[in-house]
Design a protein that fits this description.
The chain is of the alpha/beta class and 294 residues long. The chain has one domain (2-293). 46% of the residues lie in helices and 18% in strands. It has helices at 2-18, 22-39, 44-54, 60-83, 89-95, 102-109, 124-131, 149-159, 172-178, 215-223, 258-273; strands spanning 96-98, 114-118, 138-143, 165-168, 184-189, 202-205, 208-211, 226-236, 239-248. The strands form two sheets. Strands 1-9-8-2-5-3-4 form a seven-stranded mixed beta sheet, with helices on both faces. Strands 6-7 form a two-stranded antiparallel sheet. A hairpin with a 2-residue loop joins strand 8 and strand 9. The chain is globular and about 50 Å long. Its main location: membrane. The chain crosses the membrane at residues 12-40. It is found in: Cell inner membrane. Keywords: Acyltransferase, Cell inner membrane, Cell membrane, Membrane, Transferase, Transmembrane, Transmembrane helix.
Length: 294
């Protein structure tokens, strides 16, 4: 009971912070950067190890530069995520722009539903919210549930603010099949780390064998949906644009693992372009291929 009360108090504090204007939130971000990078050293060992493994060709100075830029951006990402609690539709339309939304209607005209693959890159949550403005069709956001029910319910409310329908990861295929007679758009994050019991496939990603979910490929083939990738760029502080990159509109004609490799390789291309915007503090490489045989 006490824990639930504290959780609700935390949510109230986040709500009040979200009412602050962007310019003030970025002042808080600057302060946060000093705290998490210089004082707390939040997961700096994880970030440094990930960068060493991903970019062995870069000098130590180059990796340190990426690390510092990453923490500056992580601080911005935190306040932007809080702002999503109360951000207006007008602000969302202004700050996140789709460059080729016509592609969505081209697929719909062909009778194709769409699976949009994102990575933990730039502000992927804001991009997902913005996609609600692209189409009036059913729009589903697949998420990994939090263990804390109070905060999980809170984030479901945020993700559904502009009409999106959050779907828990384990319910994804069932929901997709349920709505297969409709034209839908579904957003899935392609660089989640599977739990050990769900590790079935490794591919090369950022210079190392990486366990990946096969769910995107499986769903695309089951409902015969076109697959696109969110290519997101940060234009300036607090402003983004994204381009939908076609991967395939004939998933049933692709070879096994082909769709998975395509979206993983495209994400790597995006990360290498501007690496500071990927979630380097995430423990992405928990498993190695040899772990499957233990």
């Amino acid at each position: 009971m006490i824990k639930k009360g504290l959780d609700k108090l935390g949510i109230l504090i986040l709500y009040l912070i979200s009412l602050l204007p962007f310019w003030f939130l970025y002042i808080l971000s600057d302060i946060s950067f000093v705290i998490i990078y210089h004082l707390v050293h939040y997961r700096r060992d994880v970030v440094q190890q990930n960068l060493r493994n991903a970019f062995p060709e870069k000098s130590e100075k180059e990796r340190q530069d990426i690390e510092r830029k990453y923490y500056r951006y992580l601080s911005d990402l935190m306040v932007e995520t809080i702002k999503m609690i109360t951000v207006s539709e007008k602000q969302m339309r202004k700050r996140v722009v789709a460059t080729n939304s016509d592609l969505v209607f081209e697929y719909f005209e062909k009778g194709k539903s769409i699976i949009a693959v994102a990575g933990h890159y730039c502000n992927w949550e804001m991009a997902a919210l913005n996609f609600n403005f692209v189409t009036d069709k059913r729009f589903m956001i697949v998420y990994k549930p939090l263990t804390n029910k109070t905060f999980n319910d809170f984030f479901i409310e945020i993700r559904s603010r502009f009409g999106g329908q959050p779907i828990a990861m384990k319910q994804t295929l069932r929901k997709m099949i349920e709505y297969r007679k409709e034209l839908t758009v579904s957003v899935l994050v392609g660089d989640q780390t599977p739990v050990m019991s769900e590790v079935n496939y490794f591919t090369n990603f950022l210079n190392q064998p990486t366990a990946v979910f096969l769910g995107i490929e499986k769903i695309a083939k089951t409902i015969d949906a076109a697959v696109v990738f969110y290519d997101m760029r940060r234009v300036k502080r607090g402003y983004y644009e994204y381009t939908l990159i076609p991967l395939t509109e004939t998933p049933k004609q692709t070879a096994e693992y082909e769709i998975t490799v395509m979206h993983v390789q495209y994400l790597e291309k995006v990360i290498r372009r501007e690496p500071q915007y990927w979630l380097w503090s995430h423990r992405r490489w928990k498993f190695k291929p040899e772990d499957l045989h233990r």
